[in-house]
Specification:
Layout lengths: L18 H14 L7 E5 L14 E4 L6 H10 L4 E7 H7 L1 H10 L4 E6 L34 H7 L4 E6 L3 H13 L4 E6 L11 H5 L2 E3 L9 H9 L5 E8 L5 H4 L1 H4 L11 H11 L1
Parallel strand pairs: 1-2, 1-3, 3-4, 4-6, 5-6, 7-8
Antiparallel strand pairs: 5-8
Helix pairs in contact: 1-6, 3-4, 5-8
The chain binds thiamine diphosphate and magnesium ion.
């Protein structure tokens, strides 16, 4: 593979944004894994995080806000040879896309989902997201967010996700290891990436995360769901980062006999005469 294959494009992010490190780490992970750009599909929704696919020259699709997962899993289902990676924000995937998040965990299509969790709506200038801490004030809610946040990694574990990890944009080596394991995992894999937003989140700053994140001890058994849940619930003075949970199980393709027997849309011949016959039958 040509190591300069993943050329980056100029971004529209603020100087100091955690997205730069996530983009660089994604690029180096894909290169380290030797994945050719034509075998990779990056999917985003809408938001600053969701622009990530637009900044690397591979196959990309940016859909609607909250709706990155449906086209991503559809592409993987019909083209199992693709490595499908989703880059979205906390608002995109935990807010407006909350239902797609929950139900695609159940579907377990083999995709890697990287949520850039800056605990705020960045693109739209600072409204509270589902992970915004209670009381956090921004220009959009000067009296502070009045809702309780939810815990995305705990939610993913409760919904049955087979791979759940947490990382931080300020620890690129750690992040690269998490990205690689998530891409290699056969099934839906979530990496919740804590990320600073210099413009709209003045509470959860780089220093705030940096002084709290701690790599999970090697003694942790990632197949132990209850231990994973305890680590997931630790989010305060200490924030454990690493693979919380990893358990093998049948993915979407393995559960569907038709897909197992090699049926796929990609590569299938195209028969315009058959389409015409079908159309005639409908009129
Ligand atoms: C259907 C729809 N609803 C709302 C919006 C407005 N909108 C665009 S991005 C966004 C929030 C982005 O927040 P997040 O996903 O956390 O990404 P960030 O910008 O923080 O990276 C919202 C509400 C939209 N474009 N489309
Ligand atoms: Mg956000």
């Amino acid at each position: 593979m040509n190591s300069t294959a993943y050329v980056k494009h100029e971004t529209a992010w603020c100087p100091g944004c955690g997205n730069f490190s996530i983009l660089d780490t994604l690029k180096s992970t894909l290169e380290k894994m030797g994945l050719d750009p034509h075998d990779v599909l990056l999917v985003g929704g809408i938001g600053q995080a969701a622009k990530t696919p637009q900044y690397l020259n591979t196959n990309t699709f940016c859909g609607l806000h909250g709706r990155a997962l449906p086209p991503a899993v559809a592409a993987k289902i019909v083209n199992p040879g693709l490595t499908v990676i989703i880059n979205t924000g906390d608002g995109d995937s935990y807010g407006e896309g909350g239902n797609h998040f929950l139900h695609n965990i159940r579907r377990n299509v083999d995709v890697a989902h990287f949520v850039h969790d800056n605990q705020v709506y960045g693109l739209t200038k600072g409204q509270a997201s589902p992970t915004t801490m209670e009381g956090m004030a921004t220009g959009a809610q000067p009296e502070g967010s009045m809702n309780s946040p939810f815990n995305p990694v705990l939610l993913a574990l409760a919904a049955g996700a087979g791979f759940v990890a947490r990382s931080f944009s300020g620890r690129p080596e750690h992040l690269q290891a998490m990205m690689e394991r998530a891409i290699r995992y056969k099934g839906y894999a979530l990496v919740d990436i804590l990320q600073n937003c210099v413009s709209f989140n003045k509470l959860n700053t780089f220093a705030w995360y940096n002084s709290r994140v701690q790599e999970i001890d090697v003694s942790h058994d990632p197949t132990d769901l209850m231990a994973a849940m305890r680590l997931a619930m630790t989010f305060g003075d200490q924030i454990p980062i690493g693979v919380l949970y990893e358990q093998e199980g049948p993915d979407y393709h393995a559960r569907h006999s038709l897909l197992q027997t090699g049926h796929k849309l990609v590569g299938r011949g195209n028969d315009p005469a058959m389409v015409e016959r079908l159309m005639r039958r409908m009129v």
